[in-house]
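Researcher: We're reviewing a set of sequences before deciding which ones to prioritize for further study. For each one, I'd like a predicted 3D structure that I can look through quickly. This is Arylsulfatase. If possible, include the structure in token form so it fits the rest of the review sheet.
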Amino acid sequence: MKKTLQIIILLSLSMVNLAVAQDKKPNIILFLADDFGFGSTNVYGASEALVQTPNINQLAKEGVQFNNAFTTGSVCSPTRYGLLTGEYSWRSRLQKGVVSPSAPALIRQETKTLPEYLNSIGYTTAAIGKWHLGYNEKEFKNLLGTIKHGPNSHGFNYSFTVPNNLDDVHKIYVENDKVYGLRSEKLSPYGRSFYGKQYKGYDAPQRVTEQVMNDLTEKSIQWLDTLDKEQPFFLYFSSVAVHHPITPSPEMRGKSNAGAYGDFIQDIDRCLGILINYLEKNNLRENTVIIFTSDNGGDIPHKKDIMPENFAINKGLQINGTYREDKHTIWDGGLRVPFIVNHPDGIKKGNTSESIVSTVDIYAFLADYINVKELGKNDAVDSFSFKKAINTSKAKYQRAPLIHRDAKGRKAVRDLEWKFIEAKDSNAKDKSLHAQLYHYKKDPSEQENLIHEYPKKAEELNQYLETAKKVGTKLNTPLK
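Model: Here's the predicted structure for Arylsulfatase, in token form for your review sheet.
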């Protein structure tokens, strides 16, 4: 009788432990590379003779690799806005371009962001890396004093960020709501950035471009070390690589066969590997979702013989694969990106998916995947969960049409096979400014404009786009 009682108690405890394990929310690392084109990693076609990305390769091998993943914008700020809000950036004031170094916060205070949603279900959150979504209520001259409406005002419990990009005029880090390490409010403008503008000259530690990836990775580890291991975390790691200026770390300098640009690609992989190693050493890896993607396609400068990107391309690296054009443009070289989702406890190894997904969908996917609380009707209005595409190689998941915009505000809409691009100037001699229609499944390089052959399809997609401008796409009836 005593032994029977002991067995019952042990079984009961086992059942309780199993229930706790099953109910435990996964940790999340969202690793967003900067200007990292579709063809820049081995699993998406880059030759190992040119660059080596073993950690990204392993992430794909042990998770699901999406081959039809796209951003909502072909430049930085629109994609970042969409990722954190679950809505297209043109629903905000940003109709074209990106957020400038002196621009006010782009995300509205009333918008419920992804980190705010995660806070509401028990997560602790951090944004570490490139922000590029503005600060304060109005345009500002500098970041002295208390900085308002940054990451910490939008759901992040901790932030350590680069205000705009790797060599912006601020040249400092922002930790929570202050310039990191600020010694006084003295300004001593000096030197000029990669873009030709004078640095602000804060009396604070100045970023060293070659060390920024190391700094961000180190801060991520420090933040992870402070956490209660029983509380789930969300780390938004927003890499500054491979945005120009192309300045690889000392650890990677000269390590690739594609010049400095290839070295910088390998910096992304190296820092991802450091984060994964930390998870493994602290028994956190199995229950951590890692999503790896990019904010837009790779940038191909026009100065073909003197820029590191062009050196890598001349060596044979197709940074955007075989897709047309690059960052800034409305074509798929600027919009198609690598996209990998990995979770040892919940996702089968070695899957690939041909389903269409987008960076704007990460919000709805995580809410669906964690499965604790449904999103409100007016939250993440353009975000669709791709959970059904995770553990099957068959295309059972079909997304509603996806809308893109380029650096100049021009829009395009994509369904399962067709892509319609609105006219920028119907009367222009340059036909690339006219309305276009591509059967991108058959013509992935977007070479044959079929708008005159299929006017009804073009009109159908155009009508979807016009309707979506007025109402969140979740509230629309998807095209059949």
